[in-house]
UniProtKB/TrEMBL annotation:
<dbReference type="GO" id="GO:0008237">
    <property type="term" value="F:metallopeptidase activity"/>
</dbReference>
<keyword id="KW-0574">Periplasm</keyword>
<keyword id="KW-0378">Hydrolase</keyword>
<keyword id="KW-0732">Signal</keyword>
<dbReference type="Pfam" id="PF03411">
    <property type="entry name" value="Peptidase_M74"/>
</dbReference>
<keyword id="KW-0645">Protease</keyword>
<protein>
    <submittedName>
        <fullName>Penicillin-insensitive murein endopeptidase</fullName>
    </submittedName>
</protein>
<dbReference type="GO" id="GO:0006508">
    <property type="term" value="P:proteolysis"/>
</dbReference>
<dbReference type="InterPro" id="IPR009045">
    <property type="entry name" value="Zn_M74/Hedgehog-like"/>
</dbReference>
<dbReference type="GO" id="GO:0004252">
    <property type="term" value="F:serine-type endopeptidase activity"/>
</dbReference>
<keyword id="KW-0479">Metal-binding</keyword>
<keyword id="KW-0862">Zinc</keyword>
<dbReference type="InterPro" id="IPR005073">
    <property type="entry name" value="Peptidase_M74"/>
</dbReference>
<keyword id="KW-0482">Metalloprotease</keyword>
<dbReference type="GO" id="GO:0046872">
    <property type="term" value="F:metal ion binding"/>
</dbReference>
<dbReference type="GO" id="GO:0030288">
    <property type="term" value="C:outer membrane-bounded periplasmic space"/>
</dbReference>
Protein backbone atom coordinates (compact mmCIF):
# COMPACT_ATOMS: atom_id res chain seq x y z
CA UNK A 1 0.00 0.00 0.00
CA UNK A 2 1.16 3.53 -0.71
CA UNK A 3 2.24 5.76 2.15
CA UNK A 4 0.21 8.96 2.05
CA UNK A 5 2.24 12.17 2.54
CA UNK A 6 1.59 13.80 5.92
CA UNK A 7 0.00 16.92 4.37
CA UNK A 8 -2.63 14.73 2.70
CA UNK A 9 -3.31 12.91 5.96
CA UNK A 10 -3.80 16.29 7.60
CA UNK A 11 -6.36 17.29 5.02
CA UNK A 12 -8.20 14.04 5.56
CA UNK A 13 -8.25 14.33 9.35
CA UNK A 14 -8.98 18.03 9.82
CA UNK A 15 -10.96 18.87 6.72
CA UNK A 16 -14.16 17.80 5.07
CA UNK A 17 -14.44 14.74 2.88
CA UNK A 18 -16.90 13.49 0.31
CA UNK A 19 -19.26 10.84 1.58
CA UNK A 20 -20.99 9.48 -1.49
CA UNK A 21 -20.93 9.42 -5.27
CA UNK A 22 -24.22 11.33 -5.32
CA UNK A 23 -22.82 14.21 -3.29
CA UNK A 24 -19.76 14.58 -5.46
CA UNK A 25 -20.91 14.02 -9.01
CA UNK A 26 -24.58 14.82 -9.09
CA UNK A 27 -24.73 18.05 -7.10
CA UNK A 28 -28.24 19.26 -7.81
CA UNK A 29 -29.05 21.38 -4.78
CA UNK A 30 -27.39 23.34 -2.01
CA UNK A 31 -27.76 20.59 0.56
CA UNK A 32 -25.88 18.03 -1.51
CA UNK A 33 -23.26 20.63 -2.36
CA UNK A 34 -22.34 21.31 1.27
CA UNK A 35 -19.43 19.68 3.05
CA UNK A 36 -20.87 18.16 6.24
CA UNK A 37 -18.61 19.99 8.70
CA UNK A 38 -17.90 23.21 6.77
CA UNK A 39 -19.47 26.64 7.02
CA UNK A 40 -19.79 27.16 3.26
CA UNK A 41 -21.24 25.09 0.50
CA UNK A 42 -18.77 24.58 -2.33
CA UNK A 43 -20.96 26.67 -4.64
CA UNK A 44 -21.03 29.53 -2.12
CA UNK A 45 -17.27 29.28 -1.73
CA UNK A 46 -16.85 29.36 -5.50
CA UNK A 47 -19.07 32.45 -5.76
CA UNK A 48 -17.20 34.30 -3.02
CA UNK A 49 -13.87 33.56 -4.68
CA UNK A 50 -15.02 34.48 -8.19
CA UNK A 51 -15.39 38.23 -7.57
CA UNK A 52 -11.93 39.16 -8.89
CA UNK A 53 -12.37 39.70 -12.63
CA UNK A 54 -8.89 41.07 -13.36
CA UNK A 55 -6.68 38.93 -15.61
CA UNK A 56 -4.28 36.66 -13.77
CA UNK A 57 -0.54 37.25 -13.76
CA UNK A 58 2.22 34.97 -12.58
CA UNK A 59 5.90 35.05 -11.79
CA UNK A 60 8.58 32.40 -11.91
CA UNK A 61 8.09 28.75 -12.74
CA UNK A 62 5.80 25.94 -11.59
CA UNK A 63 8.57 24.93 -9.16
CA UNK A 64 9.29 28.44 -7.84
CA UNK A 65 6.69 31.09 -8.50
CA UNK A 66 3.65 33.09 -7.44
CA UNK A 67 0.19 33.89 -8.76
CA UNK A 68 -1.84 37.11 -8.72
CA UNK A 69 -5.57 37.50 -9.39
CA UNK A 70 -5.95 33.72 -9.43
CA UNK A 71 -9.20 32.17 -10.61
CA UNK A 72 -10.86 29.32 -8.76
CA UNK A 73 -11.98 26.31 -10.77
CA UNK A 74 -15.68 25.45 -10.45
CA UNK A 75 -16.42 22.66 -7.95
CA UNK A 76 -18.46 20.93 -10.64
CA UNK A 77 -19.70 21.20 -14.20
CA UNK A 78 -21.86 19.23 -16.57
CA UNK A 79 -19.22 16.52 -17.04
CA UNK A 80 -16.62 17.13 -14.32
CA UNK A 81 -16.15 17.71 -10.60
CA UNK A 82 -13.33 18.73 -8.28
CA UNK A 83 -12.19 15.60 -6.50
CA UNK A 84 -12.09 16.66 -2.83
CA UNK A 85 -14.02 19.27 -0.86
CA UNK A 86 -11.27 19.51 1.77
CA UNK A 87 -8.73 20.51 -0.84
CA UNK A 88 -11.21 22.90 -2.47
CA UNK A 89 -12.01 24.76 0.75
CA UNK A 90 -8.31 25.01 1.61
CA UNK A 91 -7.69 27.15 -1.51
CA UNK A 92 -5.97 24.44 -3.56
CA UNK A 93 -8.18 24.76 -6.67
CA UNK A 94 -6.91 28.08 -8.03
CA UNK A 95 -5.19 28.61 -11.35
CA UNK A 96 -4.27 31.25 -13.90
CA UNK A 97 -7.30 32.66 -15.73
CA UNK A 98 -6.04 31.40 -19.10
CA UNK A 99 -5.37 27.91 -17.75
CA UNK A 100 -8.87 27.85 -16.24
CA UNK A 101 -10.28 28.66 -19.68
CA UNK A 102 -8.18 25.95 -21.32
CA UNK A 103 -9.38 23.38 -18.78
CA UNK A 104 -13.06 24.33 -19.03
CA UNK A 105 -13.07 24.62 -22.83
CA UNK A 106 -11.55 21.15 -23.01
CA UNK A 107 -14.28 19.71 -20.79
CA UNK A 108 -16.87 21.29 -23.09
CA UNK A 109 -15.25 19.48 -26.02
CA UNK A 110 -15.14 16.21 -24.09
CA UNK A 111 -18.85 16.51 -23.32
CA UNK A 112 -19.60 16.48 -27.04
CA UNK A 113 -17.25 13.59 -27.77
CA UNK A 114 -18.07 11.48 -24.69
CA UNK A 115 -21.66 12.39 -23.70
CA UNK A 116 -22.48 11.22 -20.20
CA UNK A 117 -18.85 10.62 -19.25
CA UNK A 118 -17.71 12.21 -15.97
CA UNK A 119 -14.16 13.52 -15.41
CA UNK A 120 -12.37 14.76 -12.31
CA UNK A 121 -9.96 17.62 -11.65
CA UNK A 122 -7.45 17.11 -8.89
CA UNK A 123 -5.23 19.82 -7.40
CA UNK A 124 -4.17 23.08 -9.04
CA UNK A 125 -2.51 25.96 -7.10
CA UNK A 126 -2.96 28.04 -3.97
CA UNK A 127 -4.83 31.33 -4.22
CA UNK A 128 -1.58 33.32 -4.31
CA UNK A 129 0.60 30.56 -5.66
CA UNK A 130 3.79 29.60 -3.90
CA UNK A 131 4.64 26.33 -2.21
CA UNK A 132 1.79 23.86 -1.81
CA UNK A 133 2.87 20.72 0.03
CA UNK A 134 3.38 17.94 -0.89
CA UNK A 135 3.72 19.15 -4.50
CA UNK A 136 7.10 20.24 -5.80
CA UNK A 137 5.45 22.39 -8.45
CA UNK A 138 1.93 23.94 -8.69
CA UNK A 139 3.36 27.30 -7.62
CA UNK A 140 2.41 29.75 -10.38
CA UNK A 141 -1.01 28.67 -11.63
CA UNK A 142 0.38 26.77 -14.60
CA UNK A 143 -0.02 23.26 -13.14
CA UNK A 144 -3.12 21.07 -12.91
CA UNK A 145 -3.59 17.45 -11.87
CA UNK A 146 -6.23 15.34 -13.60
CA UNK A 147 -7.59 12.02 -12.40
CA UNK A 148 -7.17 9.15 -14.84
CA UNK A 149 -10.57 8.10 -16.23
CA UNK A 150 -11.27 4.42 -15.62
CA UNK A 151 -13.02 1.41 -17.09
CA UNK A 152 -14.56 -1.65 -15.47
CA UNK A 153 -14.82 -4.57 -17.87
CA UNK A 154 -14.36 -2.07 -20.68
CA UNK A 155 -17.20 0.23 -19.54
CA UNK A 156 -16.67 3.75 -18.07
CA UNK A 157 -16.48 3.47 -14.29
CA UNK A 158 -16.63 6.32 -11.77
CA UNK A 159 -17.06 4.77 -8.32
CA UNK A 160 -13.40 5.09 -7.31
CA UNK A 161 -13.37 8.73 -8.43
CA UNK A 162 -15.39 9.80 -5.38
CA UNK A 163 -12.85 8.83 -2.70
CA UNK A 164 -11.44 12.34 -2.27
CA UNK A 165 -7.84 12.36 -1.02
CA UNK A 166 -8.01 8.61 -0.46
CA UNK A 167 -7.74 8.33 -4.24
CA UNK A 168 -4.00 8.89 -3.81
CA UNK A 169 -3.85 5.55 -1.95
CA UNK A 170 -5.15 3.53 -4.90
CA UNK A 171 -2.61 1.18 -6.43
CA UNK A 172 -2.48 0.37 -10.14
CA UNK A 173 -0.03 -2.00 -11.78
CA UNK A 174 2.28 -1.19 -14.70
CA UNK A 175 -0.55 -1.98 -17.14
CA UNK A 176 -2.97 0.37 -15.39
CA UNK A 177 -5.03 -2.33 -13.67
CA UNK A 178 -6.34 -1.68 -10.16
CA UNK A 179 -4.52 -4.12 -7.93
CA UNK A 180 -7.56 -4.86 -5.73
CA UNK A 181 -9.85 -5.53 -8.70
CA UNK A 182 -8.18 -6.11 -12.05
CA UNK A 183 -11.49 -5.69 -13.89
CA UNK A 184 -10.96 -1.95 -13.19
CA UNK A 185 -8.29 -0.25 -15.27
CA UNK A 186 -7.03 3.11 -16.51
CA UNK A 187 -8.74 4.29 -19.71
CA UNK A 188 -5.59 5.22 -21.62
CA UNK A 189 -7.39 6.09 -24.86
CA UNK A 190 -9.64 8.67 -23.21
CA UNK A 191 -6.76 9.99 -21.08
CA UNK A 192 -4.56 10.67 -24.10
CA UNK A 193 -7.50 12.19 -25.97
CA UNK A 194 -8.03 14.55 -23.02
CA UNK A 195 -4.37 15.59 -23.03
CA UNK A 196 -4.46 16.07 -26.79
CA UNK A 197 -7.52 18.32 -26.54
CA UNK A 198 -5.87 20.31 -23.74
CA UNK A 199 -2.92 20.89 -26.07
CA UNK A 200 -5.22 22.13 -28.85
CA UNK A 201 -7.11 24.48 -26.52
CA UNK A 202 -3.82 25.76 -25.11
CA UNK A 203 -2.63 26.65 -28.61
CA UNK A 204 -5.74 28.79 -29.17
CA UNK A 205 -4.69 30.99 -26.22
CA UNK A 206 -1.02 31.02 -27.20
CA UNK A 207 -0.01 28.45 -24.59
CA UNK A 208 1.50 24.99 -24.83
CA UNK A 209 1.86 21.93 -22.65
CA UNK A 210 5.35 22.15 -21.21
CA UNK A 211 5.44 18.78 -19.47
CA UNK A 212 3.29 15.80 -18.51
CA UNK A 213 4.04 13.68 -15.46
CA UNK A 214 2.60 10.17 -15.28
CA UNK A 215 3.59 6.86 -13.78
CA UNK A 216 6.48 6.15 -16.13
CA UNK A 217 5.56 2.48 -16.54
CA UNK A 218 2.41 3.63 -18.38
CA UNK A 219 4.24 5.12 -21.34
CA UNK A 220 3.99 2.06 -23.58
CA UNK A 221 0.25 1.83 -22.91
CA UNK A 222 -0.24 5.55 -23.51
CA UNK A 223 1.71 5.79 -26.74
CA UNK A 224 0.00 2.69 -28.08
CA UNK A 225 -3.31 4.58 -28.23
CA UNK A 226 -4.51 6.64 -31.18
CA UNK A 227 -4.09 9.94 -29.36
CA UNK A 228 -0.93 8.83 -27.62
CA UNK A 229 0.63 8.54 -31.07
CA UNK A 230 -0.66 12.02 -31.93
CA UNK A 231 0.82 13.43 -28.71
CA UNK A 232 4.15 11.92 -29.67
CA UNK A 233 3.87 13.47 -33.15
CA UNK A 234 3.15 16.87 -31.57
CA UNK A 235 6.27 16.55 -29.45
CA UNK A 236 4.44 16.77 -26.11
CA UNK A 237 7.08 16.10 -23.48
CA UNK A 238 6.45 13.32 -20.97
CA UNK A 239 8.89 13.22 -18.05
CA UNK A 240 11.43 10.49 -18.68
CA UNK A 241 12.34 9.81 -15.07
CA UNK A 242 10.68 10.36 -11.71
CA UNK A 243 12.02 9.36 -8.33
CA UNK A 244 10.37 6.14 -7.08
CA UNK A 245 8.31 8.05 -4.50
CA UNK A 246 7.03 10.64 -6.99
CA UNK A 247 6.50 8.03 -9.68
CA UNK A 248 4.42 5.85 -7.38
CA UNK A 249 2.12 8.77 -6.57
CA UNK A 250 1.31 9.34 -10.25
CA UNK A 251 -0.34 6.02 -11.06
CA UNK A 252 -3.81 7.47 -10.38
CA UNK A 253 -3.50 10.88 -12.07
CA UNK A 254 -1.56 12.87 -14.63
CA UNK A 255 0.11 16.18 -13.89
CA UNK A 256 0.33 18.85 -16.59
CA UNK A 257 2.46 21.99 -16.62
CA UNK A 258 1.47 24.66 -19.14
CA UNK A 259 3.61 27.50 -20.47
CA UNK A 260 3.01 30.68 -22.43
CA UNK A 261 4.49 30.62 -25.93
Amino acid sequence: MKRLPSILLGLLIFGCTETSETEVIYLTDKQNDTCNTCAFSLVDYYSINSLDTLPSTYTGTPANGSLNHAKILPPKGKNFFYFDSTSYLKDRAFTHSDIRDIVLNTYANLDVIYPGRIFSIMEASNKKGGKMDPHRTHQNGMSVDFMFPKLKNGVPYHHLDTLGFLHYLLDFDENGRYTKDTTISIDFETSTHHIYLLALEAEKLNYAIEKVLIYTEYKDELFRTTYGKKLKQKGIYFAQYLTPKINNLHDDHYHIDFKAK
